[in-house]
């Protein structure tokens, strides 16, 4: 139940009001007292809520939407950032260089998932760094928290240390395995993933080589900055 905000009563009560408004029919949203509350009061109420609850609140009415998204450094996003992001994550160059608390939260939502990786992979608390435990005869991987079904997306990946026998980065559906025995190019080994083998610069899909990247002679390793996936 936690502590109470200044003059607002129990956070759970605030959450109940916000949740009830979010569930109301579209034509009635924002017509009650919630739709007339000053932005400062709403900001204090919203500062108790989690991200999924804030998404629902943003759909209640234009007043609530503007309160949530008008200032990306508001108490709402600062409070959520402090509650949901580890100090190690906030200190990373990735998040330090972002201009607002909301941008930091958005970026962290795309970090690696501790629940969607090989048992031999350890995701550090910063969320953006993974370490593979040196297990013999095993190929291991990890997926990020959020996937895409369409659009154009780019990633920047830093690989520290030696590449080893097989080093592949790429994209994969939820059905692609994240661990297998032996040393193989796991990403690109089936029709559920597409991989870029950094050792030989081959592009892989469905167990076959589909050309090379970058397409130039004596391609520099570790220095290709832009790898973009586009499509549906």
TrEMBL record:
Residues 90-232 form the B30.2/SPRY domain. InterPro entries: B30.2/SPRY, B30.2/SPRY_sf, ConA-like_dom_sf, F-box-like_dom_sf, F-box_dom, FBXO45-Fsn/SPSB_families, SPRY_dom. Pfam families: F-box-like, SPRY. GO terms for biological process: proteasome-mediated ubiquitin-dependent protein catabolic process; protein ubiquitination; synapse assembly involved in innervation. Coiled coil: none annotated. Residues 36-80 form the F-box domain. One of its GO terms (cellular component) is synapse. This is F-box/SPRY domain-containing protein 1. It comes from Camelus dromedarius (Dromedary).
């Amino acid at each position: 139940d936690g502590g109470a905000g200044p003059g607002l009563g129990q956070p759970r009560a605030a959450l109940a009001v916000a949740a009830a408004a979010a569930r109301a029919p579209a034509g009635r949203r924002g017509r009650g007292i919630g739709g007339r509350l000053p932005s400062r009061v709403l900001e204090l109420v919203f500062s108790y809520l989690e991200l999924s609850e804030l998404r629902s609140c943003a759909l209640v009415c234009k007043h609530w939407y503007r309160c949530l998204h008008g200032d990306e450094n508001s108490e709402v996003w600062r409070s959520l950032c402090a509650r949901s992001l580890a100090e190690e994550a906030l200190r990373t160059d990735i998040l330090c260089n972002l201009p607002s608390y909301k941008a930091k939260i958005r970026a962290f939502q795309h970090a690696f998932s501790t629940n969607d990786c090989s048992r031999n992979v350890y995701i550090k608390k910063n969320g953006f760094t993974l370490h593979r435990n040196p297990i013999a005869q095993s190929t291991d991987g990890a997926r990020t928290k959020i996937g895409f079904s369409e659009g154009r997306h780019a990633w920047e990946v830093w690989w520290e240390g030696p590449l080893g026998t097989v080093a592949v980065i790429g994209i994969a559906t939820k059905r692609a395995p994240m661990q297998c025995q032996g040393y193989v190019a796991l990403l690109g080994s089936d029709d559920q993933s597409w991989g870029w083998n950094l050792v030989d610069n081959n592009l892989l899909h469905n167990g076959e080589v589909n050309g090379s990247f970058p397409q130039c002679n004596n391609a520099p390793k570790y220095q290709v900055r832009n790898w973009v996936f586009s499509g549906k």
